[in-house]
Amino acid sequence: MYQRILVPIDGSATSEYALNEAIKFAQQHKAHIEALHVIEDVLFSENDDYINYAELVRSLRANGEKILAQAQNKMNQSGIECETKLLVAQGERIVDVIINEAKSNAADLIIIGTHGRSGFSRILLGSVAEGVARTSHIPILLIRGDK
Questions:
Q1: Which of 7, 20, 86, 123 is least surrounded by Cβ atoms within 10 Å, i.e. has the fewest?
Q2: Per-residue pLDDT tens over the stretch 82-101
Q3: Is residue 141 within 8 Å of 107, Cβ to Cβ?
Q4: Where are the domains of the chain?
């Protein structure tokens, strides 16, 4: 059975649904959860002199740490074995960071929220959940958020 669950979270309501389902699953199966937040690279042109890149990265990191602290608190209150991790994409696609973390942490299930977009909005915005589902070496449980 699944004993190590990876749950990518981004602070959205959809990732909150995924975390809630992962907690329920972990309670039933005595599994361990790793909540993962990935900071996406911020790209800017050389003409963007007015952007304080270091401050922006600090802000993104602080936001990620806040999201993970809330997840840690929720998991601790549920009494499950858990951990959190903050990673920076460093030029990689977020999907690849998630898959690599699943491999390096010996996860046997990924539970991830999906917005369930279709049509043009899916093409325009893409989907991390879809990318994970297409490239994962382990089973994926997609949790759909409310529309």
A1: 123
A2: 999 999 998 899 999 999 99
A3: no
A4: 4-144
